[in-house]
Design a protein that fits this description.
The protein is α+β, with helices and mostly antiparallel strands. The protein has three domains: 155 residues; 55 residues, SH3 type barrels, CATH 2.30.30; 83 residues, Alpha-Beta Plaits, CATH 3.30.70.100. The chain contains ten helices and eight strands. The N and C termini lie far apart (138 Å). The relative contact order is 0.05.
Length: 339
């Protein structure tokens, strides 16, 4: 028995050193010609686990050659299984993480990199769960009972974690569908803000006043959302009204006056200006022009400059802006009304 133990120990020892030599010396020379560094990482990881696996296997085989009590023999069996599963899970996790990160990096998509980085803890947990199930099966635990317990626990967790899981799926949908990205200006309901951070549970926005607004991802995926980042130009449409005392010559001159003001502004393309309505207290003009910018602040600055110039031009020509008012006409003089 001792002789067979020596042979097995020698084979395991020699095999361990041979594998280590292959992983560290032979295979790396072959992979130097490849453009990817993943194979280098793979062989390096295998070499790091060669000696722990070899030592564990040597210890297990050696103890099996001795007549040990049943409880100790069972403990050795459990120890070997736990160590092998532990090392295997760590190896698989490290290789899986490196592979997915490399895949995301080669894609050049920042959202994909964020998604994979966020999913790493879940993937690691799944691998550990599979390793645990394999260990339990090796120990003779009835898997039917295990799966029943997992099903019951999963049902309870599903109710308890309904909201967090919903937010996680909404986060994944945001990264995959890309309705917005960090740095883009969006409108959700009454909120106009720039996206600062997309988190697993919520998204951080900064509004025009500088305040940070935190919104649940489910709200962003289920609510109508406007994204202004991809707008090559912004169409501005609004009306202004002048008083009914404005004479016809000034009314004819107003469209050309406004058009010249808008055309002189940088990054602005004039479309039209027309007298469109006899309102109850004003004569209304509709103004339409395009601001060729994606920046909301630049668009507001251009609109403000145009509005101020219109006000100044109207003031220079004696054109008055209208405001809601009523003029009452009496058939009799005030004295006649009193009498």
């Amino acid at each position: 028995m001792n002789f067979s133990l020596l042979i097995e120990a020698a084979l395991i020892t020699v095999g361990t050193f041979i594998l280590y030599f292959v992983f560290t010396r032979v295979l790396p020379r072959l992979t130097r010609k490849t453009s990817s560094d993943f194979d280098d990482f793979l062989f390096k990881s295998l070499s790091e686990y060669t000696f722990p696996v070899g030592i564990t296997l040597l210890t297990y085989v050696s103890l099996k050659h001795f007549e040990l009590p049943a409880n100790i023999d069972e403990a050795v069996e459990i120890f070997a299984v736990v160590v092998f599963v532990f090392l295997s899970v760590r190896l698989v996790n490290s290789i899986l993480v490196r592979f997915l990160r490399g895949l995301a990096r080669r894609s050049g998509d920042e959202d994909m990199q964020m998604l994979i980085a966020s999913a790493m803890p879940l993937l690691r947990a799944i691998v550990w769960a599979l390793g645990t199930l394999i260990s339990l099966q090796r120990f003779g635990v009835p898997m039917t009972a295990v799966f029943t317990a997992i099903g019951g626990a999963g049902l309870g967790l599903a109710f308890a974690l309904k909201e967090p899981v919903g937010e996680l799926f909404a986060y994944v949908m945001i990264l995959l569908d890309k309705p917005f990205r960090v740095g883009q200006f969006i409108n959700v309901g009454s909120v106009w803000a720039t996206v600062e951070k997309i988190g697993v549970r919520s998204t951080h926005l900064r509004n025009l006043r500088g305040e940070v607004i935190v919104m649940n991802n489910t709200m962003l995926t289920t609510t109508e959302l406007s994204n202004f980042a991809d707008m090559a130009q912004r169409r501005m449409v609004y009306r202004i009204g002048v008083t009914y005392s404005t004479n016809v010559d000034l009314m004819r001159a107003i469209p050309e006056l406004i058009g010249s003001i808008i055309a002189a502004e940088d990054h602005v393309r004039f479309d039209r200006c027309h007298f469109v309505e006899f309102a109850s207290s004003s004569l209304n003009f509709e103004i339409v022009y395009y601001i060729e910018t994606k920046d909301y602040s630049v668009a507001l600055n251009a609109q403000q400059s145009i509005n101020l110039q219109i006000m100044q031009s109207f003031a220079d020509r004696g054109i008055e802006f209208a405001f809601p008012s009523q003029t009452l006409y009496f058939d009799k003089t005030p004295s006649e009304v009193v009498s």
